[in-house]
Structure formats: structure tokens, C-alpha cells
Amino acid sequence: MGILKLILIPAAVGVLIAAVWNLIPEKEIIVEENNFYGSGKVRSDNTEIKPFKVNVDQSVIDDLKNRLLNARISHSVLEDSDDFYYGFNSKQLLKLRDYWLNKYDWRKQEALLNQFPQFTTEIEGLQVHFLRVTPPKSYKIVKPILVAHGWPGNVFEFYKFIPILTDPKKHGINSDFAFEVIAPSIPGYGWSEQPKKTGFSQLACARVFRKLMLRLGFEKFYLQGGDWGAIITSLLTKVYPENVIALHMNMIPAMPGSNFMGTFYDILGWLIPSTLSSEALQKTHNPFAKFGVLIVETGYMHLQATKPDTAGTSLNDSPIGLAAYIIEKFSTWTNTEYRALPDGGLNKKFTNDELLTIVMIYWTNGNIVSSQRFYREFFLDRRCEALAKRYVSTPTAHASGLNELYDRCPIEVSRYSYNVTHYTEIEMGHFAAFEAPKPLATSVFKFVKDLE
Ligand SMILES: *[C@@H]1O[C@H](CO)[C@@H](O)[C@H](O)[C@H]1NC(C)=O
């Protein structure tokens, strides 16, 4: 592919410049203690914690049905490209619409969500929704963990993961301790309120999540994150290390160039693969190819980081458009090889019910636009990137997905940004907790146990 070569040289130059730039010590980064993202004038939070249940109005479901019946999918797939290389295959989309209309049962999914105790509480002017699940009484040792989701996901990604964390023995993991799990919806996602003012960045979210944990009585806790969740938990650890016992991530938020020594080993690992300890990476590692993948696969990011309100308008108006936009990611980001398949390999790891429930949570809350704005806020809040320089001495684990789209950060690189005490490779893609709940949970338990 010509485009890959075209960006290889500028990417290499850019990485080297960034690596040198990152040698300059960090300037003081000030994180305010408080901000206000609610509607209207600044006021203090109502700190009450209120129980919450998902209960979508029947009129929303009826309206959805009408829109699906009237959906216009009039483009046909190219005769010589019955796959996902041009995006969501329209033949497959018609089948999905049929499933959604005739077989999908939202009330069943709602019950699945409502099996978990849920609450809301006001932080920085926003109602923050979260799941709080405690282990059975038989566990004498209980450790608090916050698990953070990303885009285009929500807390539903954790519905198989949480029960393993709260009751490992029942799921064949031999552990004498269990986790009490707090899974918040990022404000603007799921059932958390949408920020009403600009500036709600990943750093703001880290601060809000910390306040949530403190309000629940957890002074010190564990963290797990992927996608934005990895960036949020990583920032939380960098800014408030006193509150974090250990950080587990299934994605290392560090691009080539973000660290001088790391970049050296990144390039060395490409030139001399035997310098990498991972056998899988010895075969595939190429720090510059990551930029090629970025160009080919992250057009959505550029749109969302610049004009989220434009990009989201039609998605918020059309459930079939929203489904194509979101579910396509569950194909490519799970395994890039799935692009070659007529059905995008969507049902290899996920059921239609699972995929549609992720979409339904965006649809019924009408919050695709606010979820997209989170990208814009990331690039506008320069502190998010500036903090990339700050080393994390808190013990950190990386559960690396072998099919992860572009983040396959070798430990030889990540150890210069994080105190990586645990590294494991798992046959999974980007949506780790959703696709591989048991291996991911196993990694969390081993990491935490080894620290004792
Ligand atoms: C990394 O974490 C371990 C376990 O807590 C600790 O013993 C070690 O000193 C830390 N290393 C660094 C470089 O902070």
C-alpha cells in the first residue's frame, strides 16, 4: 500500500523529533481541584448516592422500530468487494436490521444490566452513573477496583467481566480475595449526564472518577482500563498516585516517540527483533507501521476530534447509521483480518444481542455526540499529552491483546513510561473485557496477587 510508505519517512522523522522533545523535563502541570460541567451557574454538588435502574420508555422503543422499518439501505456492496474493506457491508447491515427488528429483545438486555446494583451521584455538576458490585460474603479479603470503559463502548462491555472479578472461585480462578467493582459510565456516555460545558477531558474524567471513589469511601484502590479507560486510569495514577495501589491496562497509552529511551528500544526491536522478549512481537513489531494503521483506520478520530457535533448529527438521527458506525469497530478492532470477511467476523466473538446492546445504550440515551466530543476535549486539553512524559512508579500491568489494532507496546518500551511488573499476552483484540473476560480477569488476579 503506497500510503504506508508515504507516511513512513515523515513518521520516522516525527518520532525522532518527539523523542528528543520528550527529553525536556516536564513543565509544572496544574490540575484544578474542582470544575463545573453542569447546566447553568456554578453550584455545589448534591453528594447523595441514589439507586438507579435502567428503564427505557416504551415510546423510545416504538420510535426505534419505526425508524428501523423506514431505514434506507439502498447502496449495494461493490461486486468485487463483498467484505468490510469499504466499511460496513450493506448486505450484512440488512441482516442485522432484520435481527434487530424481529429477534432482538431490549427488555431482556435491560434485565441483564439491572442484575447489577447501579447508582448515580452528582460530581462537578454532573450526575455520574455507576455499577457497584460486591463479592459474596464468603470472601474474607475484598479489594476495591474501578474499571473504566472507552469508545464506542459503555459499561455493558463488563457484564461478563464483573462477575469473575467479584467471584473468581465460581469461575475457576483460585483466589482467596475478590474485588468489589465500581464501573462508572464516563460523563456523556451511558447513563451519566452529558457535560454541558466545554473542557470535560480525560483529565477531568480522571478527577471525577477519583472523587467518586473517595465519596464511596475508597482512599486507595486498583484500576483497570482499556481504550479511553486506559488513558483515564493512567492519568488518574499520574496525578493522584497516593490513591492508586496498582494499575492494570489492556492498552498502553504511549505512542512511539513519547519517551526517549522507550523510542530507542522501539526502533531497536524493529531492527533487531531478538532484542524483544515477546516472541509474537519479534515476528511483527514495527513502530512506524502503527502510523500507517492510524491513517487507514482512524478517520473517525480526526472527525470526532475536530467537528463532533457535525459527525454525530446523522448518527443520532438514524439507528441503522449509528449501528454501522459503531459495530464496524467491533469487527476491525477485534481482528483486522475480519475486514476480509463478508460478515466482518462480527459473530466470531460477539453475539448480535451483545453488539446491538452497545448500540442501544447510545441510541436510547441519545449521547453519541457527547461521546464524540470527548475526542475533541482530549486534543484541546494539552495537559493530557504533557502528562505522557510523567513516569508512573505505581506497579503497572499490561495485558496485551495479540490482535490489538495498533497498540502492541513491547515491555522493553513501556517500562520507560510505567513500572511494569506484570506483562501478559492474550489472544484478543481491543475490546478485551467484552471479548476475553476470563483471560483478562486472570491477568488482573495474578498481577494483584504477585504484588502481595
Ligand atoms: C515498582 O513497583 C514495585 C512493587 O511495588 C516496587 O518494589 C518497585 O520499587 C517499583 N519500581 C519503581 C522503579 O518505582
TrEMBL record:
GO terms for molecular function: cis-stilbene-oxide hydrolase activity. It is a single-pass membrane protein. Residues 49-158 form the Epoxide hydrolase N-terminal domain. It catalyses: cis-stilbene oxide + H2O = (1R,2R)-hydrobenzoin; 1-(4-methoxyphenyl)-N-methyl-N-[(3-methyloxetan-3-yl)methyl]methanamine + H2O = 2-{[(4-methoxybenzyl)(methyl)amino]methyl}-2-methylpropane-1,3-diol. Its main location: endoplasmic reticulum. It is an enzyme of class 3 (hydrolase). Residues 1-18 form the signal peptide. It is found in: Endoplasmic reticulum membrane; Microsome membrane. GO terms for biological process: epoxide metabolic process. It comes from the Eukaryota. The active site is at residues 227, 375, 430. InterPro entries: AB_hydrolase_fold, Epox_hydrolase-like, Epoxide_hydro_N, Epoxide_hydrolase. Pfam families: EHN. Its EC number is 3.3.2.9. Keywords: Aromatic hydrocarbons catabolism, Endoplasmic reticulum, Hydrolase, Membrane, Signal. GO terms for cellular component: endoplasmic reticulum membrane. Belongs to the peptidase S33 family. This is Epoxide hydrolase. It comes from Caenorhabditis brenneri (Nematode worm).
